[in-house]
């Protein structure tokens, strides 16, 4: 058979065409989505100008935002949106646009103070490139098929092992791109791996890749610092803390003083919503792959910051770091090592049935959860499971789905096998 080689002219033509259509190599992904605005970000292989078109149906993208500067990392803010509304969008440049899709949309956050129920997906220690990471993600895709999450919180160690841009590129973006990055509102926290084991916030790519809502865009107390911030989502106050950040003074949040700690206290004091979840990377209690009896950061967190969580009646403190799942009783005043746990002294709870808590104005203890097996998995230290834990699992990976309405919080730990292995509810009058 005689196959004709393409002429030089045809090759040049194809090359020019290819060069004018810049390949999208990351995203699009949504950042700092609030009730009235959101940021669309993506990366292209060649520098181009940026264009976002959006509208109320994928077939009717009528509004256009253009930024003329040629860049690789595109960042376009869409403003003037209505709360709790779905806007379809797509991305590109003045030369070419990607096709619109049913999966490519921005759902604005509920109006501040709204009592509508929200669903939150909490994922920890995931960007490892493991089979477990994929299975945990697939389980969430399946579980949330008919009721998608409204917001996504990350508990740190988002990309292994140094939080490098290329690690995010290989082990984070491709895994969640299609189902989540292009349509889910993300409020992350960093871990020690994102900081590459250091404490200087000027270094981690994490801060370049993500935009944190630090101006109180979602109703929390403005922090003005991308390491920590809070957002109000429906009836829940979500507080993202940075357990790795060392301030110029040398202080970290677990020292119980310094700018982050002071902001945290003011933020919790200012909160008027019925539910509060504080999340960060290094847990106050764990006997999984890390040991809160011996590791200083965890011990200091427990001694210096837990009293604040208790004072302001935080409902759930969630962390990762330890690559297991551990859920404690509602606790107060347990600042010693595991062996000192005394249920008569430290458990403050009222239940209507096992794992069903009912809370009045006096509050209950704080439920501490380690949810750190979203990719990494396993480990146990002497004393596992924690004496204060109701349920622990270091054999199976998983992540959490929380459904929160005005009077009820329902939490499940969804295993990588697609089954629910732990669940509890908290009811408030
Ligand atoms: Fe960690």
TrEMBL record:
Q: Which residues form the Purple acid phosphatase N-terminal domain?
A: 31-102
Indicate the secretion signal residues. 1-22
Alphabetic keyword roster: Glycoprotein, Signal
InterPro entries found in the cross-reference section: Calcineurin-like_PHP, Metallo-depent_PP-like, MPP_PAP, PAPs_N, Purple_acid_Pase-like_N
Entry's transmembrane regions? none
Q: Which domain of life is it from?
A: Bacteria
Q: Tell me if Transport is a UniProt keyword of this record.
A: no
Q: Where is the Calcineurin-like phosphoesterase domain?
A: 119-325
Family matches, as PANTHER family: ACID PHOSPHATASE TYPE 7, PURPLE ACID PHOSPHATASE
| The protein's name in its UniProt record | Metallophosphoesterase family protein
Which species is listed as the source?
Answer: Aquirufa aurantiipilula
Origin organism lineage: Bacteria, Pseudomonadati, Bacteroidota, Cytophagia, Cytophagales
